[in-house]
């Protein structure tokens, strides 16, 4: 194909214009990057620009006295755990059209498998404050120090084929160990959990070392006290057979902690354990909720007991590590069977409290391997 001289000059001109536009675009991107807050700059340049100073002289040393070994009751949580012995028991609101009250419930029971990974918070969290929290004329400094782990868990329903199926729960959060209390001396361990239904849990409590026999005794006491029974607590005078769905589902559904007792194992003589009891009912505990679930199914009184169990062989070598738990929360919905409560504007104390109970037994399948060569004894920096 032949091209005239004028056409050649036009093509050359267009090529030059395109090249200039590309150069301009590159320059514009470079200038924009330079104006960002230091993402592409040397750290020293960013520090100088923002006037960042070493805070060593004003708030003390940056390395704490604590190491990962200071995690105490939380140390053996580190790693990944799996278990397929879970049981979930929960009653949910169910609308039934027809004569009489349309508000009813449906009982859901699910066997589930679970995977939890715990990772350390690589710092000692320092909450600075005044003696006695006196904000006017304190007599000294009083700081709180927390160590902790983060966790991520996923729960899947076990299908009819025995394999993991539908995702039924996802959660992330933290466990904290109070190693130096400030004014808050009522707890030593706490759990903070984010639930995708739209709730955030802060539960506080304590821990204790237990033998295998001690774990067994505690489970038997919880069974006897019905502390983790799944039956509704305040029905009033309910119609005959109202709770039959629970009774017909079997004694494990009514008292799920029986499963933990069965899955504890027979080698309790060689078992040592850490027991952690937490609740939202004490000072500082709370359950925050989004508006819809708060109005529809109000959550209160979350309680949980966890056992971190270590079984050793005759030579003292760790044979396996096991994590067991039972937890429940009251889910308040549907007015109870009391005449004064049978109205559309019934108060909160007129609602039935339906326990949502979960139990599971897991084994550690992957130990934590994140410590440096010198082990977990390196001092942690302060997070303040």
Low-confidence stretches: 23-41
- What can be said about the biggest beta sheet? 10 strands, antiparallel, barrel
Q: What is the strand content?
A: 35-45%
| Termini separation | 74 Å
Brief summary of the model shown:
This protein is of the alpha+beta class and 384 residues long. Helix content is 21%, strand content 41%.
Architecture overview:
There is one protein chain. With 384 residues, the protein is α+β, with helices and mostly antiparallel strands. The chain has 2 domains: 5-50; 62-383, Calycin beta-barrel core domain (Lipocalin). It has 8 helices and 13 strands. The chain has a 10-stranded antiparallel β-barrel. Helix 4 packs antiparallel against helix 7 (257-263). Residues 23-41 have low confidence and may be disordered.
What attributes characterize this protein structure?
alpha+beta, 384 residues, 13 strands, 41% strand, ten-stranded antiparallel β-barrel, Lipocalin
Give the arrangement of secondary structure elements:
Elements: H1 5-35, H2 43-50, H3 56-59, E1 79-95, E2 103-120, E3 124-127, E4 144-158, E5 164-180, E6 189-195, E7 199-211, H4 212-225, H5 244-248, H6 251-254, H7 257-263, E8 271-279, E9 286-289, H8 291-296, E10 298-312, E11 318-335, E12 351-367, E13 382-383
Parallel strand pairs: 3-13
Antiparallel strand pairs: 1-2, 1-12, 2-4, 3-4, 4-5, 5-6, 6-7, 7-8, 7-9, 8-10, 10-11, 11-12
Helix pairs in contact: 4-7
